[in-house]
Every structure is written in C-alpha cells, then in structure tokens.
Amino acid sequence: QVQLVESGGGLVQAGGSLRVSCVASGRTWSFLTMGWFRQAPGKEREFVATITWSGDMTYYTDSVKGRFTISRDNAKNTVYLQMNSPKPEDTAVYYCAAARGVGIKVREYDYDYWGQGTQVTVSS
C-alpha cells in the first residue's frame, strides 16, 4: 500500500502563489504516475495535473495551463503543485493521487492511492 499526505494548503490572494506538496510512503516512488485532483464546494472532483514517474511528461486540465506546474522529487518521494496566479475559481480541496504503471493518467479510477486532501482558498 502507498500512503499519501498532502500539505501546504491555505489562504492565498488572487494573483499570488502557493505550492502544495504530497509525500508518499510505503512503496517505491519509481514507476508511480502521480496526479492532482480538486473538488470545489458543491462540485464533483476533477482532474488538475499529472506527471509520469520519470517526470518526462506532464499534462494539465485546460483551466490551469500556464498557471499551475506539477513536479516531483523522487529522492524525497514528493510531488508538488505550484499554483501561480490562482483565481477564486481555483478554491477547492486538492487531492494527491498515485497510480501504478506508466503513462499519463487523467481518470480518477485509474489511480490506486489517494491522500486526504488539503484545502486551498483563493481570495479576490
């Protein structure tokens, strides 16, 4: 089993920046595709970003392209989501997820392990 723990959420002003982190334990970091999802109040959880185990490929949902950056540090078993110029619409609980195998994954049911989520609130 893989345990994922998110951190770094909080209150940020629109146009500012914030970085959330996810630390994995219990399984080798290698060969895990990592992803970030989010769930806004009253809405369904949606895909945000993903990164392959080697970090050679990333993919983002259209609404965050050019503003958010996903990265990973395998030596620290950590994946990050850098949020630049966040908007109030980005307010949500952000979830870290890990998937076995290789390749870009954007569907919730393709991920095998999930963190508890961290709240990100963007003020206008």
Explain how this protein is built.
The chain is an all-beta fold and 124 residues long. It contains no helices and eleven strands. The strands form two sheets. Strands 2, 4, 5, 6, 9, 10 and 11 form a seven-stranded mixed beta sheet that branches. A hairpin with a 6-residue loop joins strand 4 (32-39) and strand 5.
Provide a quick synopsis of the model.
The protein is 0% helix and 52% strand. The protein is mainly beta and 124 residues long. The chain starts with a strand and ends with a strand.
Q: Which value, in Å, is the CA radius of gyration?
A: 13 Å
Strand count, sense and barrel status of the largest sheet are: 7 strands, mixed
Number of helices: 0
Shape: globular
Unreliable residue runs: none
Strand segment tally: 11
Bin the strand percentage: over 45%
Topology:
Blueprint: E1 3-7, E2 10-13, E3 17-25, E4 32-39, E5 46-51, E6 58-60, E7 68-73, E8 78-84, E9 92-100, E10 113-114, E11 118-123
Parallel strand pairs: 2-11
Antiparallel strand pairs: 1-3, 3-8, 4-5, 4-9, 5-6, 7-8, 9-10, 9-11
List keywords for this structure.
124 residues; mainly beta; 7-stranded mixed sheet; 4-stranded antiparallel sheet
